[in-house]
Model the fold of this input.
Amino acid sequence: MSKQPLGEKRPIFLSFSPVVLVGGLSLAVLLAGCQEGADGESANDGQASSAAQGRFIEAPESAAGEPIEGELTSQSGVNLNNGSRFGSHWVCGSEGAGELYQLDSPFAATLSVYDERGRWQGGAESSEQAPASLLLGPSEGCSLVVVNSTDMSGFGPYALTPSQQQGAESLTDGEAVVGVLGEETASYPISLDDTRQVTLTLAGASSAALVLEGNEASHKAARCGDDQQTLEAFLTPGDYEVRLVPGQPVKERVDVACEDDFVSVGGGYRLTMEQADLSRGERNSGPLRSGDSITGTLDDASSSNTYELSIAEPTNVTLSLSSDDFDTVLQVRGGQTNIDVDDTGSGTNSLLESVLMPGDYRVVVTGYGGESGAYALELDTTPFDGELKNEGELVPGESVQGMAGGMQPNTYTLTIEQASEVSIGVSSSAFDTQLYLEGNGVALSDDDGGGGTNSRIDTVLEPGSYRVEVSSYSGSSAGTFLLESSVNAFDGELRNSGELQSGETVRGMLGSSGSNGYTFTLDEAAEVTLELNSSAFDALLGLSGGSVDTSDDDGGSGTNSRIHAVLEPGTYQVNAQSFSGSGSYSLRLTQQPFSGDFRTGGEIRTGETVYGQLEVNGELTYTLVVEEAGVVSVETQSEAVDTLLELEGNGVFFQDDDSGSTDLGSLIETTLEPGEYQVSVTGYGGNGGIVRVDVRP
Done:
């Protein structure tokens, strides 16, 4: 119940206060001789004079507990504020626990209650969900009850019917109890078998506090109107007590819509309890349990919603957060756990699969970059029957599940009995992993080499003991991870220097700094390919000797390196380096005799084919001599370079990238007049390698 504007809840006073004097006369006196009763007859017919009894207005009188009937007609009183009709009744002598009335009318109606001096006591409004109700507490005096239509179209009979009060010793879901609060505290027990969201609503008893306590919980209601309080709590199974404590008026207010269908006079109250199953539906807070599938809403860019998760024993936890409105971020906090999950689900959704130790956790829903909107949150749990191993010996072929604890890495020992090819991988849906391997002069690390935010190191290790560390890339996140390793005997030879032979693959180990050098010798001109591959680091390959001095970073697949060149006879140096990182690698040299015309410049004519070595960020320039007018075709081909071809001279200019007969080739075909033209070849992105140039008529 809440106070309403004067013109809405005080219909008989024509939008004026009853104590206002008009021309020296009370407004009540002005109304006394002109207002009619609710049945259309004069209020003096069959009634004692209200004026004689000292009342401010005349109206039919009935004893508390008797039915009240009336009808709004064109002859009924008019509320000059909005033209609606009203009927008024004096109700006198309520005793005991008071009287509860319910309004029945075919039109939208309100109830207003005044004392004998014309002071407003409260009001209620009928709705589609519930009719207006009135509880008159014990009183020796009388109350004026006014039934008012909400607009000018409201006419018809109405009735205020006494109903049996719903008194009870305990609260039941979906039911209301009605009573009158005296000087003693009123108490109602609640017993819950399951975790529930409980909402309590108190109408009336405005000078009392509504309190819920028990099972280590304590909650106090806040006001949602002048005469209403509400309380919402998430309660675990157990026994609780709801108390109405007189003499403790509540000042705190909450922005929750109040129900306006109940008005109480004289200390009466109505207490309602609603319970909700937490496993489904919409809620922005509260406990999470296995099987819960709920929805929620982030209201704005600065908001986040927090839920509580209690774990009694080691548990496999799967939390899924999805939204069509924003990029989700899921956080789990508690104890040593500090998990942040962003895009581990599909698209911009978040998925956490981890093992949580016993304890209390906070599950926080936020939007990346302050985004907001609706979301869905699901939780599934199963008992964890495995073993968490956070340190110790790492046995090859064994899968280890561990729990990262934040700033300190998890450390394991790996023992290698003979030279071996070693693969170590760590994966987690809870955090961005970081993997380290150190020992015997080897220091390797990886962040995302295992795909996504997982890590992987592939290398060749000599016999000895090595330290393996698992940590979070951010240094603060935590959660469970899976650590796997495989060790296979290496039947080759590790060579970090020496002579390279054509067709031979050399395995080497690159330290955290420096480079490894090799040589090879050509007795005749040859087309040479060098490939440096590593899954442990970003390879960088150098080649020098004679007039050649070139290098490559990512000319191979991924971060591997590749150099393709035509070399003159002589001795050449090969440098195996790392752009970043260290570890094992493979280096392979292949060569085949070269019998073509190798030129990096000079004249070319129709019918000729020449080969040129395009340096990194370099350019091949030839002079095309055309002796007779006609169609001329210039095409470039390369296995290593995406060529860019230009033809210019005698007032013409042509350019091409991908029109050649091969994937990386270029082609210009046009009619040229006799004369000299310049042909220029460059590599897309500055790449270098062998380029074949064909000139055909």
Observations:
- The first helix runs from residue 6 to 9.
